[in-house]
Amino acid sequence: MDLHPKRRIFINKGDERFQIFSFRQEEDGSIYATSPTFADAKWISFRQEANGIVPITTEAIGGGKLSVHGSGITGVRNNDDPRGHQLRVKGNHLLNKATNEAGVRHLFTIFMDEPKYLPSSSPAFNRLSDYAMQANEDLRPFVLVFFAIPLGMKAVNFQFSLQEDEMNNIPNNFLGAHSFNLRHHSILWFAYRTKDMDKWPKYTHYSYQDGYHVPIFIGTGVQRFRLEFRKPQYSIVDGALSIDCSNE
User: How far apart, in whole angstroms, are the C-alpha atoms of residue 158 and residue 104?
Assistant: First the structure.
């Protein structure tokens, strides 16, 4: 099994491979993620209040990282402010210290701006831990969704769907789904497009919740979208994990 505590994630666009993420997992199960455009990213989260769900939007926080701690606490912070986590939520654990059991959870969803970063001093696959996503055709705007899956599953069966009217006239460059391994978890990702995703957004948009609810971006016009939530159904049968994230 190809395990690495650190990963750089790339994606191809034409003949170039652009870096889009860096992932790191510590021994306590905590997962940290950042990206070349992290400093300018927009953040969308929600808080449950007595009168319903209230959206919370945070503007760019500067260079930093997304922290999903082993305990399940998740937040974002600037590198210069180690105690200044924003958009903190409590969710499903990644690693239970008492039982040493790893948990499955959604990490984050991202509607990213156009990949442009080429690390000149260390290009793609300069490191054994580098991983690349593969687009079938010219890269077009898309959404990525990431899940943390405990290592050791015999198989992972993933289901996802969109409304038919959200998929009309989508160019055939769906990236599909795949995974890469960290220290305790395999990171399952899937990519999708909807109609009205014809232009790259000016800024990358992140969204995450408690690990149980999955934010989904749906295109509604040029550089516009709406956000809806799915609550996946999980089951394990004979060591195989199934995640049903279909439209209800």
Answer: 13
Q: How far apart are the C-alpha atoms of 141 and 205, rounded to whole Å?
A: 12
Structure tokens at 225: 């979208």
Structural contact between residues 94 and 60, judged by C-beta atoms closer than 8 angstroms: no
Of the ranges 6-20, 113-127, 151-165, which one carries the lowest mean pLDDT score?
151-165
**CA contacts within 13 A on the Cβ side of 127:** 17
Q: Is the separation of the CB atoms in 124 and 19 below 8 Å?
A: yes
Residue 247 inside a domain? The answer is no
Question: Is a pLDDT exceeding 90 seen at residue 1?
Answer: no
Q: Looking at this protein, which amino acid is placed at residue 68? A: V
Range of the domain at 37: 6-148+163-231
pTM for the structure as a whole: 0.90
Residue keyed to tokens 């958009």: 87
Q: Is 242 part of a structural domain of the chain?
A: no
**Would residue 1 count as lying in a domain?**
no
Whole-angstrom distance, CA of residue 248 vs CA of residue 1 = 35
Looking at the structure of the chain, the number of domains it has is 1
Pairing of strands 205-207, 105-111: antiparallel
Strand order in the sheet with 86-90: 86-90, 73-78, 64-68, 31-34, 16-25, 6-13, 131-133
* Residue predicted with more confidence, 68 or 164: 68
* Tokens, residue 237: 């049968």
Does the residue 201 lie in any domain? yes
Distance of alpha carbon 181 from the chain centroid: 14
